[in-house]
Amino acid sequence: MRKEDCIFCKIANGEIPSKSLYEDEKFRVILDLGPAAKGHSLILPKDHAANLYELPEKLAGDAMILAKKMASLLTEKLNCDGINLVQNNGEAAGQTVEHFHIHLIPRYKGDGQNINWVPGKPSQEELEAVRKQILE
Ligand code: 5GP
Ligand code: ZN
């Protein structure tokens, strides 16, 4: 189902034009308007799901299979040296458009981009406490 006033619903379903790379019954893949690197693309489901939590399991699986195919295509055609898959859920995680999407970011040696975090240094006890919190 589409959601009124969702820009990615409109783009995915062709109501708003985009630089489209691929389309099938369930998905459209487009070039990002603010690319982190040449070929930065977005996989958009045609049905609205705000984020990964809302995405039906079957579509989640299909999206990852499509990500694999698009990663190979982008790598072959753009001759990139690697690729990042990024998928943000929630404002705290950097999500700005509330329609599930997967970023495919081709990477080039020395491109100067930063898709990184500052690593923490937890003790074994702290790691164990987190493990318990998740599993209990
Ligand atoms: P998020 O921060 O939600 O994970 O990523 C949203 C992405 O959508 C950003 O990389 C942004 O550049 C891209 N974006 C936002 N609006 C549009 C649009 O209208 N068209 C396209 N092609 N990309 C968009
Ligand atoms: Zn939507």
Automatic annotation (TrEMBL):
Renumbered ranges of motif Histidine triad motif: 99-103
Pfam families according to UniProt: HIT
CDD domains, per database record: HINT_subgroup
GO biological process: nucleotide metabolic process
Gene Ontology molecular functions: catalytic activity
InterPro entries xref list: HINT, Histidine_triad_CS, Histidine_triad_HIT, HIT-like, HIT-like_sf
Domain HIT: 7-114
Residues annotated as transmembrane: none
Active site as annotated: H101 (tele-amp-histidine intermediate)
Alphabetical list of PANTHER family matching this protein: ADENOSINE 5'-MONOPHOSPHORAMIDASE HNT1, HIT FAMILY PROTEIN 1
Protein name, as recorded: HIT family protein
Organism: Candidatus Acetatifactor stercoripullorum
